[in-house]
Amino acid sequence: MSEIDYTKYRLKPESEIRETFKEVSSIFIISCKKCYKEFEIEAEPEYDKLLELLGEERSKISGCAEFDFLCNSYLTKKKLTDLDISNVETIGVISCGIGVQFVAQELEGKRVLTLCDSVPQSGNATSVTGYHGISLGLEKCAGCGQCYLNITGGICPVIDCAKGLLNGPCGGAKNGKCEVDPQVDCAWEKIYLRLKGQGRNLPGEVKLRDYGKFKVDERNRISLFTQTRRMQNFYGGLYPLERKEETENLSIEAFPEPEHVVVFLSQHTGSPAHSLVKPGSMVKMGQKIGESSGLISASIHASISGKVLSIEERIHPSLLKPSLAIIIENDGLNSVDSSVEPVSDLENVSKESLLELLKEKGIVGLGGAMFPTHVKLCPPKPVDTLVVNGCECEPYLSADNRVMIEHPDSILKGIKIVQKILEAKNIIIGVEENKSGAIGKLKGLDSSPDVTVASLKTKYPQGAEKMLVKKLLDRQVPEGGLPLDVGVVVLNVSTILAIYQAIYEGLPLIQRVITISGEGLKRKGNFLIRIGTPIEDIIDLCFDGNREKFLEEYQIKMGGPMMGILQEDLNSAVIKGTTGFTILRKYPVEVSEERECIKCGRCVEVCPMELYPLYYAYYGKKEMWEEALKYNVENCIECGCCDYICSSKINLLSFIKKAKRYAYNKAKG
Amino acid sequence: MTRLKEALESKKFVVTGEIGPPKGVNVESCLEEAEKYLKGKVAAVNVTDIQSAVMRVGSLAISKKLLEMDIEPVFQMTCRDRNRLALESDLLSAYVLGIRNVLALTGDYVTLGDHPQSKPVFDLDSVSLLKAMKDLESGKDLAGNELDGAPSFFKGAVVTPCADPLEPQVMKMEKKIFAGAEFFQTQAVYDIGLFEKFIKEVSHLKVPILAGIVLLKSAGMAKFMNENVSGVFVPDELIKEMSVPKEDRRKKSVEIAARLIKQMKDMCQGVHLMPLGWDKEVPNVIESAGL
Amino acid sequence: MLITKLKDREEIISFFDLRPFVFKCFGCKEVYFPEEEVDRLIEDNRNKITGIARVDYLCREEFSKVYIEKVSLEIERSGGVVVFSCGVGVQVIAKLLEEKKVLAGCDTYYLNGFQGLSVQDFNCQQCGECYLNYTGGICPITACSKGLLNGPCGGAKNGKCEVNPEMDCGWELIYKRLKKIGKEEILKKKKVLVRDYRRIITEKPVVKE
Question: Which residues of C touch B124 (CB under 8 A)?
């Protein structure tokens, strides 16, 4: 397979550069590290070539800065402000025309000179340039807006014919080669042969090009639309197809009680709990069966009543490695443990007792991270704002949406409890605008004036804490920091519901609402499900197809398609952090075989944390983790945007996770 | 030497006229009007080149026709629809046909005319077209190839004197002179103050300037031009003046044109009359202006 | 930057008479692709196709090869292949399926900025002879409708282009920018710029085997 190096610039001719340098006394050089080429870390050669060519004159260079993707206006703008160039009058730019124009605009008061010519990628009589797709293939498209490929056997006459002829060969070809460039095949001969091979004729109709077809204003309108969408709410991110319509209007229903449950002892951030029961013990629903002694810990409870069958290792759905779980056989009685009692005299309960209760009831963050709530609500720094996260930006999922629609009053009561604990002045519920039903319900609540409901434009990952805080409060969570650092605590709506249930109903976290959606299902919906329900039960109930071939033909992710964790062992089970299950057909065309990075820059474009994910893959493959850390990998929120967009199908997230683990181990010593 | 050049060199106040070829091959009435109203009254007659990008008979053919009628043409050339091969070739053809005055323009964009689907060319622009003429005169074409016999032209260009900002126009005018422009015809002038300012700005450029006069046809047309035509500013007083009953408009228009010419007479070397169909009034304007 | 728009509905519907196989590329994903329109169209004609492959980055030939292999049976049974993608994707499939009638379901347009990379405010036509040094870093070829190199055409009104009044006159922008950096004398330089189109026609991209 041949690939083109689509490097878009080269140094101007020596004479021209010399002339340019004659006029300046001092110059600062900004150079772009190119795109659409084999991704190599080594410095691009142009700068050295420039130095060589300048000889003595090189002393005029006062400094130099390298940029990745100079045309990435948002990131470059930030970096330019960091550069110490206030005293510089002249800037020399080594980049393509777009980079130069952007720098000239940003540094309008300075003289910005280009030291390069852009390299034409193709061209002929009718199309000044040919545009390749995202890959580095040989085919190009002129973007003429009137595709002729249907009559030419898929060979473009506009690009491939030197004259861009639409109605047949010019007659100038010799031995099948173009008269303009004898190294190039005559496009019309290729077209003729291709069509002949298919038993088709050369097109008879007279074709005339319409050069006015695509209006400049229309192009600008689309450009603006795309740019605005990209910068909407925050830099980066994506607009994957939401597919919420599959489940958003389905009311929460109870998932059939499982015959047995698999309750993992590790269901929170921090050290795992240890079991309080033994095989053979009889347990009641809501009974505490696991406890952790660590500072960051949460209790574990039986989600059904019955007999403990065993305590054994199962594949943990989030850690994806063997982890201890208590297996309980359902006796079908649902006998409730005596500890399940609402708090009496709520008015007079102290903040401390409430926190203790949340710990006792095993409340953790239900958005996925499972951070113990009582720890989060006991911040070491002053907090003035509570943000309730109702974004649910993952495609397919609508459990939070249903919780907001069906339990708005409970949510409000839950918020009041948190407010009492945190003593936060402001409370904002952030919901994406695609959940208008939920927004309506929440706005309709007779709440105190300090609770506001904010409707946010839908964009993935708006639900990430840092994005949410930035958008709602315009506060920037520092790199490597938490919302806490800017006086904010963020809680998921489902967590708020769990808090409500713990306090008002005395119910420990033994059930939650999850969405089951995707493809090939006979049942989809939002289910109130017991923690510990085996994934197998879900497949049995919902999957519509040959059960034997499920893992062969389908994939199941715990969570949504973006951040969801691929499950390969169906003996695993629902945990507190399970937001749902997305089952997707393994498309016949799912290409898992990754390719070399072509430095297309898309991962940088979509990273909401403004990172450069391509470097993680580059250094990750070489296991040079120390280098990867230089690109702030610890700031990654693992939203999966880079992974999703990668044009080489590189599993960027796996490299990121490894790099993070390296960083974690290093910090631990 | 062309009559136009001669007239300008003799320091007389020069008047040029303009005709637009028809869309179709019936050129008689167009030529008749030139014969009746322009011949002998103006030093030369511009022939527009696919004016407003509306396809019609070519400037070259009508220029040749005028020559045959002993009317000296100014062959207008735009860069919109010919690449440098065609432009250079047409210049040689024009010379062969006896045409000497050439006015270089960039040309209106294709989408403004009646063939919005067509490919805009703009291989050269007005400046490089002037350079092409100069190169041809020196016996070489733009690519540096020798010619078998070199032409010679009286090379004109245009400028918008009431543009805002004016400076880029002046800069480009200088560039045009550098590239070979020997005379200028301007966009329509209605505001004497602005024109005077322009003349001062370009006083260092020793080239003859013919101020453009477009006959106002109504107050509405004046307002339309103010809103839509670049570098054209019709002062409110003139718009008010044009607000007369329909039957008096021609008279009023002639009166205004003549007054403008009188006011500009000492500022520039002549005027270029663009009657836009009111060719009949050209002799009246000349007479009223006392030329 | 390439974007696509669906061809006329009637034209596309006529493709279904072939009983085709359909490739739907949602490649550049968040850019501009009528993905849902295509979905609806295919849904309406579901029984007229032998199969569909929803893919990304169809322009990447190695990927396309794999896609094709996996659906080779359905393609074999089809009377043709309809591709909803930019012109590049269609050409790749046409090349890989030389024996098949391959049809484009979309027309492709280009947007400002370079191919593949994000949509930009700026445009570069890869003319091969950068003029930005004369023009204060604003490209006269793309910022001026006529691509004039030697100054404004004089057709601008209130700073707006005569071709498209929504667009600023490129040369006025250039003039203002140069004035800001005190370099407006560049415009007076006695140099007539003429483009050398050979640069774009003879330039050959570097092909790596």
Answer: 194
Per-residue pLDDT at A386 exceeds 90: yes
Cβ contacts (< 8 Å) between B112 and chain A: which residues? none
Rg of chain A in Å (alpha carbons)? 30
Instruction: Measure the CA angle with vertex A638, ends A637 and A643; round to 5°.
Output: 140
Q: Is the pLDDT of residue C207 over 70?
A: no
CATH number where C131 lies: 3.40.50
C182 found inside a domain: no
Closest residue in chain B to residue C189, using alpha carbons only: B175
* Amino acid making up residue C205: P
Q: By the 8 A CB rule, do A270 and A297 touch? A: yes
Residues of A with CB below 8 A from B116's CB? Answer: 212
Per-residue pLDDT tens digits for B138-197: 999 999 999 999 999 999 999 999 988 888 888 889 989 999 999 999 999 999 999 999
Range 155-174 of A in CB contact (< 8 A) with B: none
- Tell if the CB–CB gap between A208 and B110 is shorter than 8 Å: no
pLDDT of residue A126: 60
Tell me if B117 and A211 make a contact (CB, 8 A cut-off).
Answer: yes
Q: Is the pLDDT of residue A655 over 90?
A: yes
User: Do A73 and C115 make contact, defined as CB atoms within 8 angstroms?
Assistant: no
- Position A297 scores a pLDDT of 81
Which of C151, C154, C156 shows the shortest C-beta gap to B175? Answer: C151
Q: How buried is A56 (Cβ within 10 angstroms: 0-12 exposed, 13-18 middle, 19+ buried)?
A: exposed
Answer yes or no: is C47 within a domain. Answer: yes
Residues A27 and A75 in one domain: yes
Residue A62 burial (C-beta neighbours within 10 Å; 0-12, 13-18, 19+)? middle
Chain centre distance of CA A300: 31
Statement: residue C12 has pLDDT above 60: yes
Q: Which residues, numbered 431 to 450 in chain A, qualify as contacts with chain C under a Cβ-Cβ cut-off of 8 Å?
A: none
Structural domains in chain C (count) = 1
Give a yes or no: residue A16 inside a domain: yes
Domain final position from A522, A551, A585 = A585
Size of interface A-C (CB pairs under 8 A): 328
Query: Quick one: three-class SS letters along A187-221?
Result: HHHHHHHHHHHCCCCCCCCCCCCCCCCCCHHHHHH
Q: Which helix (H) or strand (E) holds A643?
A: helix A641-645
The alpha carbon of A562 is separated from its chain's Cα centroid by a whole number of angstroms, namely 6
Rounded CA gap, B76 and B153, in Å?
12
CA distance C49 to chain A (A): 16
Report yes or no on C184 lying in a domain. no
* Nearest CB partner across the interface for B178, out of C153, C190, C194: C190
Q: Could you tell me if residue A473 is inside a domain?
A: yes
- The answer to whether position C42 is within a domain reads yes
How far apart, in whole angstroms, are the C-alpha atoms of residue B119 and residue B15?
A: 36
Do A394 and A487 lie in one domain? The reply is yes
Mutation for C interface: B123, B158, B175, B225, most C CBs within 10 A: B175
Question: What are the structure tokens assigned to A632, written together?
Answer: 């702030």
Please tell me whether residues A388 and A483 are part of one structural domain: yes
Same domain, A174 and A100: yes
What's the N-to-C CA distance of chain C in angstroms?
Answer: 25
Question: Which chains have 3+ CB pairs within 8 A of A?
Answer: B, C
Structural domains of chain B, with CATH: 3-288 (3.20.20.220)
Please tell me if residue A101 touches chain C, with a CB cutoff of 8 Å: yes
| Burial grade of C117 (CB within 10 A; 0-12, 13-18, 19 or more) | buried
Of A5, A123, A588, the CB nearest to C206: A5
CA distance B240 to chain C (A): 23
Q: Coil, strand or helix: which one is B245? A: coil
